[in-house]
Amino acid sequence: MPRERGHDEEDHVPSITSQYLARYRRLAGDRSDTLLPVTGAQRRFVLVRSLDPAGRPDLVPMFFAFPSGIVDPERLRAAARRLAARHTALRSRPSVVRGTPVLSVAAAPDIRLTRPGRLVAGESPAAVLRRALGSWDVRGPSLRLFLVPDEEREEDIVAVVLDHAVCDGRSLARIVGELGAAYTEEATGHHTAPGETEAELTAYRDAVLGQLAAEEKAETPQAAAYWADRLRALRTHAPAPRPDRVAEGAKPSGAAQARLPAHDGGVSFPGLLDACRAAARELYGTGRIVPLGYPWGGRPTGAEPVVGCFLNTLAFPVDTGTDTATGPGPGPEATADAWWDDLDRADVPFDAVVTAVRAAGSAWTGSLDGLLTVDDDTRRPPLVLDGVEGREVHVDGRPVRGPFAVSVTQGEEIRLRMVWDRAVIDDEGAHRAFDALTHALRPSDHTVQ
C-alpha cells in the first residue's frame, strides 16, 4: 500500500535551481573539471541565444584606439592567451549538453586575434568591426580580439570582445587591467606560476556553486508569490521587428548620446528608472506597464572576485501613466520604495521569476521592452599597452538585443547613451524618447548622433 504523504511534502515543488543542479550533477559525473555549472544569469543568456532565430549570442565589446604601429599583434594575442589561462570563464564556452546549460572548459585557451586585410575602398573601420561581430561563431572561443587599422586617423583599433555569458560588467575592469599587465609580462618573459590555473578553477567553481546556493535559497514560495503579484500586469509593448523598416545597407541600430553635469553625487538608481519611464512613455504610449530589465547583484558572500557572469537580470514594471493631465505615473518616492522591495528578492533567478509570473496567469513571456545598465567610470580603466593608453571609442550600428537599451556612466559627469533596434523603433520616435530621457534627468543642451 503506498505511503501517504504529509501536507508539506505534497506541496513541495523543487525549485528551478535545485532541478538544474540535479540535472547538472547527473550529466557531469566525474567530468566536473571540464563541465561546470552555470549561474542563473548565465542560464538566461544561453536561453536567449537558443530562442534567437539566428542563434546570436549577447556580446560585450570594448574598443580602444592606439597610434598606428605601436601594437604588436602576436604579443597581444599571447597576452590574451595568458589572461584566459588564468581565468576559467575566459577559456570556457557556453553550451547545452543533453538539454542542460553548462560551461565547457578548454584545457588550453584558443584565443584568436583577427586582422582583416586592406579595407575596401570607402569602408570604415567601424563597418569592418560590425561585420566581424555579426559573423561571430558560437562554436569558437568566448574571448576574441580584433585589430583594425584606421588609416584616416592614423590609428589602430583594438577590439576586445567577450560572450556575455562568461563575463558581467564587474569583470570588465579586471579583464582590461590584466590584459595590459599580461602584455607587459610578455616583454619581460614572466611566466604564469604553476598551479595558478588550477587554483582559479577551484575558486571559480566554488563561486558558481555559492551563487547557485544563494539562488536556491532565494526561491521560496513567498518570493514567487511576490514576483507573481508584482509583475502580473506585464506584457511586451514593442512592435514586432520589421526588417523592411531598415533601408538596404543601413545600420541595423541607431544611437544617441549626451553628457550631462553631475550633481550631488550623481543620479540615484530610482531616478534613472523614472527617466526610463519618460522614454518608455514616448515609445509605447500611456496606460502601459512596460517591462524594463536591469542587471543587479554580485559575487556570493565569501567568494573570490573571479571573472564570470553573476549579475542577475531584474524586471522593473514601468508604469507610463495615463495622460499628460494626470502625470507620468508613480513619483520618485514610490519608485524607490518598490525598487528597494524588489532588491530584497533580487537573488531569485530570472527564469524562476518568469515561471512564477506565468503560473499566476500572466501572458508575459519574459521579453523586455528596454534595458538599463549603470556603471561607475572608475570601474572602466583604459587599456594600457606598454605605457600607451588606448582611447576608448564606440562602434555604433551593431545589432542590439531588445527594442532599446540605455547605458549610464557616472563620474565627474553623466555620460548617457541610448541605442535602439531600427527594425522595431524608428529614428524619429527614438530621438523623442532620448530627449524625454535626458530632460527627466536634467534639462540640458545635448547632442545626438
Task: Explain the overall architecture.
With 449 residues, this protein is α+β, with helices and mostly antiparallel strands. The protein is 36% helix and 22% strand. The chain has twelve helices and 16 strands. The protein has helices at residues 7-11, 16-28, 40-51, 73-86, 125-134, 169-188, 196-218, 221-230, 269-284, 332-343, 350-359, 427-441; strands spanning 35-36, 59-67, 92-97, 100-105, 112-114, 143-150, 155-163, 253-261, 289-296, 312-319, 370-376, 384-385, 388-389, 391-393, 404-410, 413-421. It has a six-stranded mixed β-sheet, sandwiched between helices. The protein has a five-stranded mixed β-sheet with strand order 5-6-7-2-14. Strand 12 (384-385) and strand 13 (388-389) form a beta hairpin. The longest helix is centred in the middle third of the chain and has 23 residues, at 196-218. It is globular and about 60 Å long. The relative contact order is 0.16. The model is unreliable at 1-10 and 443-449 (pLDDT under 50).
